[in-house]
Amino acid sequence: MTVYIAPDKAQLLAAHRLDNFDSVWDYQGEWFEPPNQRRGGWSGVNRVALPEANATDYAVFLKRQQNHQRRTGRHPIAGVPTFLREFSMLLYLQTQAVPAPKPVFFAKRKVNSDQQAILMTEALTNYLPLNQVTEQMFANGMPSQKTQRVLIDAVAIMVRKLHVAGVQHRALYPKHIFVRLNADKPADVAVIDLEKSRITFWDFYRTYIDLAALNRHAVFWSRTKRLYFFKQYLGVKRLNRWHKFLCRLIYKRSQRGSTCA
After folding, report:
1. How does DSSP assign 44-111, residue by residue?
2. Which of 162, 166, 204, 260 could form a disulfide with 247 if both were Cys (CB 3.0 to 4.6 A apart)?
3. pLDDT of the residue at 74
4. pTM of this prediction?
């Protein structure tokens, strides 16, 4: 059995008897996402509020799965739990200063022929999915263009950080980018749902695949906003020939209106 507990949360989890596999696995609570049944296995999510000594609640997402595997180069037949891949990626992103949920508890075990895994992460309190934020901001033309660009800047910087770290998300949809708007500073942006993510060594491929997915699902983004995002992601004021070529490739894959000039 493999068990990880975030050092600064060990006492809190112990106080709520959520510091070992059996007690966490047997947790009873309302489902945030009811168990998803597939291929003889299942995976479900609870949102749990853990009261702290200072009378505030520490919110976490508790994810449990059984027989949800993904094949890897090292495990081409049996595969590994998808939560193990996500947990490993979350730890890696911490070392790269890429904003993502903090892993609080992880454990996996094999019971007879069943592979079981648990992943508990800190909830992104006061964050909203990017698709909800842009619907509110872009669809109504409010607030000002300057405020909208501050948001786009923050999202572009986060995605660039992710790719500079060598990570290809492989499902970079607006619903997997979470945003917390601030009155007096740039928005906080974090990336979630990293089960499919992986380290790749080809910069072009990370950009091509992930930005095509984001562009395809970026509803309410005008052509101008898409172009502005692309420039901010690249860190340039004008697109050169290579940038325009890359942009056209992204457009063709995404099957949406071109953002190129």
Report:
1. EEEEEEEE-TTS-EEEEEEEEEES-EE--SS-TTT-EEHHHHHHHHHHHHHHTT---PPEEEEEEEEE
2. 260
3. 61
4. 0.92
